Amino acid sequence: MTRILISGASIAGPALAFWLHRSGHDVTVVEKNDSIRPGGQAVDFKGATHMQVLREMGILDELRQYDIRDEDAAIVDEHGRTIGVAPGGFGSGELNVPRDTIATVLYERTKDDVDYRFGDRISRMVDDGEGVTVTFRSGSVERFDLVVGADGVHSGVRRLVWGPEEQFVEHRGHHYVLADLDLGDDDVVYSQPGMTVMLGGSKAPTFIVVAADRFPGARDDVDEQKRQIAGALREGRWRIPEIVDRFADARSFYTDSISRVTVGRWSRGRVVLLGDSAWGNALSGYGTGLALVAAYVLAGELRLADGDVATALAEYEARYRPYTAASHKVNAGALLAPRTMRGIRLRNLFFRAASIASPLMRLLDLPAKGLDLRRYEGAGSPVRR
């Protein structure tokens, strides 16, 4: 039995924990938050590989109960007049489920078999080639055979082993906000140069994209994040002033830059990166599905390697890296919140064409539906060679 530590309890971490426990490993998951983080937009799954992985995990039918069907949204001008339509199928998948719902389902499926440690994080690691000695912020020191950084774009594991975040994270010129607010039941999109607001009715949080330089760090200060976003939206028209005033009442509020992560190699010694910590998807719509399948691949390669960690990590990267390339090609911020009126008009024309021509919509799904991966006998066999 191999002892494995995973940093991050969002989606990639618990998904990997599921497969590793099935293969007989002793798994610990450490998460800096005190519980599963609430809120977040609906994330989507599409294509046979995504569906089959969920089915093999035994959670597909359960997640279908929480499926959110995206409706067409009216595009309005600053006076509230409808000037176009954003198709509900744009960027969505065959299954769309709130992020915190998926995270909770994965946690519930693994909590009795996996040692979850909330409210803690890794502060130091020493890899001697035979294992990794980990010091936690809580003060405990423990030994693991492998450490996995599934802790997102701002990965603490990557910082400790690879170096400062600035070396690997490219800010794409936009920030996004997810705020759980009561703003009516209609699906509405409003844009002006450099900012877009999407109201998801009662089904989804308010989603805001704003063009802005990288804000000074406020990772653990939600009040400061609200002030920063309010400042970036100060020229907002339509209902934007009202929405900013409602930030104080948001049931949940999350903001981050739209960024792209590029890491030369995903592993060093007995430490490996998974999900956004390795290839940060910049809101391209492929991130959750990519992370879910990557967890299956990493666990499968570890099982096949039978203790040869170096071979397993090399195979995991060689087999999976090509599928992450698509996530770097989409600049979601520039598409969702163009900086000029001309850009907004072109985007609206694209939406109109997409709503009329279903083949154009299907082109957006090709990276997810093109996954064709190795079969891992005995650990569930969700994908074919």
TrEMBL record:
<protein>
    <submittedName>
        <fullName>FAD-dependent monooxygenase</fullName>
    </submittedName>
</protein>
<dbReference type="InterPro" id="IPR002938">
    <property type="entry name" value="FAD-bd"/>
</dbReference>
<keyword id="KW-0503">Monooxygenase</keyword>
<feature type="domain" description="FAD-binding">
    <location>
        <begin position="2"/>
        <end position="279"/>
    </location>
</feature>
<keyword id="KW-0560">Oxidoreductase</keyword>
<dbReference type="InterPro" id="IPR036188">
    <property type="entry name" value="FAD/NAD-bd_sf"/>
</dbReference>
<dbReference type="InterPro" id="IPR051704">
    <property type="entry name" value="FAD_aromatic-hydroxylase"/>
</dbReference>
<dbReference type="GO" id="GO:0004497">
    <property type="term" value="F:monooxygenase activity"/>
</dbReference>
<dbReference type="Pfam" id="PF01494">
    <property type="entry name" value="FAD_binding_3"/>
</dbReference>
